[in-house]
Here is the input.
Amino acid sequence: MDGVTSVGARLGAPGLVLIAVALAGCGLPSLVTSPGPLQPLVVGTEQHVALEWQPPASEVPIVVRGYINNQSPYTFTQIRVLVDALGPADEILDQRLVWSYGALGSWGRNYFEAPMGPAHHYRARIFSWERLEADGLRRRQLW
Here is the structure.
């Protein structure tokens, strides 16, 4: 008996069906994911923070640089910023998710930068973050 026959004989028909279903499921994520642009996972971030960024000054490669200004008494960690490259009619040409490293303390400021392709203009938004809670610094997921 060769290796394939002995494995099939040991698993039986139900085991082979289970393996076939599992392998077929490996291809499903590409069928289920949305082909559209990314959208932030959190809403209402503008009540806590304000983003400011500089359009690139004709540098190559293009890097959008900016700051997140915390206007709240909360501390945020694991901050991801979504930067969009936009066309003349505000259509999304390209997107980048970048980290703003470190904790953003209350009334503090954090830096971020994103390498981007050429575009008419750019937009930056908070994509996700975690907020530190006062009771034992327990993290509350906000995404």
Notes: The first strand starts at residue 49 and ends at 54.
